[in-house]
Amino acid sequence: MKRYSLCKDEISVILDKLKNLVQSNTVLDQATDTNSTPSKIELPFTLQEVKAAIPPHCFEPSLWKSLSYFFLDIGIIAGLYAIAYNLDSWFFFPLFWLMQGTMFWALFVVGHDCGHGSFSKYKWVNNLIGHLSHTPILVPYHGWRISHRTHHANTGNIDTDESWYPVSESKYNMMPWYEKLFRFYLPLLAYPLYLFRRSPNRAGSHFLPNSSLFRPSEKWDVLTSSALWMLMVGFLGFLTYQFGWVFLVKYYLVPYVIFVIWLDLVTFLHHTEPDIPWYRGDDWYFLKGALSSIDRDYGFINSIHHDIGTHVAHHIFLNMPHYHLKTATEAIKPILGKYYRKSSEPIWKSFINSYLSCHFVSDTGSQVYYQSGWKKRSN
Question: Which of 47, 97, 177, 218 could crosslink 214 through cysteines, CB 3.0-4.6 Å?
């Protein structure tokens, strides 16, 4: 067995990372490679230093405040349904679809906080509200929660990240047309397919406990969420049988599609940007990968979808409630300096830019950046 001689400062850096990985609720058995060799450390700050800059109250969830956001979203969704049903006007339905689909997305974000444990300090409350938030919008709560945990534990790592990671150039060239269709040409409709098939180079399903996503101990969590998901599908089938396909389309399917578009748009833009670096092997570690993200401004939608666009601080400290992210971001910006990324350009412009520019990365090397398949094809 090899022996290594570590100086006191190096040991301190490693302990800081391990300590904050636990505090960030990451998966240690999936993130054991988060510590790069000391010679590869490039960041001029540690995770502990970043955390120390944040007011302590930012890490404390308020059960009542979290519940207020949940009930507010539920109340708005119920109100929109009541108005749409009573008006029953095709002039109103387009507006209803946009608003209700956006509220489905806001409700998803509440469940997202539950999945991170930032909704409350009580696991049973997080699981209950998580299922109440996600099951109605056809998200298998535990299956998604666990895969999202994997994403946070491996953000910025080309080989082990879970969602919206780049493919290599050789993989891009070999991908069949149907795989490219949803990954690159119709990315805003990819989410339902991802639940069943995951992403390129990743096998498994969010519904099956024998998927490589899950540990054996998570079997019953996965089965519970999958069973509730199927009950929701059955309920929608019952509504269709009772009231017809037009009823289902008007009151559920179109808002659901809007929700999917929101989910794919926001998560795509979290990590897909031409100047965001991606890493391989020992050049990657947790904090460096967590900074491979970008904050974006969604205008008046920011408060509706619970500031999910304030994403850099969330990736560093994922157990932080969403209502403290803005305060935390302002606190860490002086520490992060040039390593903090924020875009203030219109969302539609950011999406088009990333859509046209971000398709694959080089087969080799680390700290690589997206390249465009469109430009390659035109050359």
Answer: 218
